[in-house]
Amino acid sequence: MTDTVEDTIAAPALPSAAELERMYWVMLTTTLADARAQKEAKAGKLQAAFYPVRGMEAVCAALGTVLERRDQMVSTYRNLGDALAKGASLSAIMAELYGRVDGVSKGKGGPMHLQDEAAGLTATTGIVGSGLPIAAGLGIAAQLDGDGRVVTVTFGDGATSIGGYHEAMNMAALWKLPILFVCQNNHWAEHTPLDQYSAAHEFARRAESYGMTARKVDGFDPIASWQAVRDAVSAIRSGGGPVFLEFETYRLTGHTGTADYSYVPKDELAEALTRDAAPNFREWLIREGIATPARLDEIEKDAEAGVDEAFTYAESRPQPEPDQLHEDVFADKRLVPDLR
């Protein structure tokens, strides 16, 4: 049976105080940078559409705390929190949003295609569900290498209706690939609510049918999210095969940074906003005696300054020169030199 949220929360261990503070920084920085990027998108300053991540900050922070730098991640176009949590430079992320040469993809990927191999952010994709087959391939490579690294792929609930999702899930379960499947269930597939595109709403239960461990977790709860990711990654590293985690959350903004979202039921959105991860986590850290208000004020000032610096840096950097536009686009070397 799928584990309940209560089972996950009952796990006794917590991250260290330093890790908890970093989780708060990741969530807060993601929230602030997300709001700023939406503002810049509406002003027409970005090179392409921006896809907000509001509502998913806790899941991103949990992944960033547990995953190691060597672990590989495949994300979606809604990737700001994933990239930041995995260790990509905020300044380089923002420069990519502006299409500048110092962006993580040299200004040629844009918001939908962040990539930073040094941080383990192997790929992000703009096609719904397309990251899962990529993760399956990376999982095969990791299994063959035998070095214990884990491949994580994040995707929204809408991706569970794509054919590549089912193919990747079946292959991963059949071959016991070291993959963590992270379904960020925000209840919206672009502009379509969950109950209008899927008759089955329990994605973790559906994942179990492939023969893999699956759990449903409160995606607004940073500690529950961290415990679930920790347990899953530990099981995968020990050779237990893939794990599917469904993080139930809610999209707190429109589909894109400039989109109207008046179609979202006001009562649902209002209820979801009461569970906003960063402010609630702040209260929890103080209540549990883990951090003082003064210490959290410092973290908040650092996050605000970091976001300001990143956007200032991004706007100041040059765009790629015309003669650079075709570099890094096509392979110019034989991947397998002796292959004829």
Structure write-up:
Helix content is 44%, strand content 11%. The chain has 340 residues and is an alpha/beta fold. It has a six-stranded parallel sheet, with helices on both faces. Strands 5-6 form a two-stranded antiparallel sheet. Helix 9 links the parallel strand 7 and strand 8. The longest helix has 26 residues.
Keyword list:
single chain, 340 residues, alpha/beta, 6-stranded parallel beta sheet, two-stranded antiparallel ribbon, 12 helices, 8 strands, globular, disordered N terminus
**Can you list the strand order of the major beta sheet?**
2-1-3-4-8-7
Mean pLDDT: 92
Structural class, judged by helices and strands?
A: alpha/beta
Q: What is the first-to-last residue Cα distance?
A: 50 Å
- Contiguous helical run count: 12
Radius of gyration over all CA atoms, rounded: 19 Å
Number of strands: 8
Strand and helix order: HHHEHHEHEHEEEHEHEHHH
Question: Biggest sheet, in brief?
Answer: 6 strands, parallel
Shape: globular
What oligomerization state is this entry in?
A: single chain
The fraction of residues in strands falls at: 5-15%
What share of residues is helical?
Answer: 40-55%
Regions with pLDDT < 50 over 5+ consecutive residues?
A: 1-12
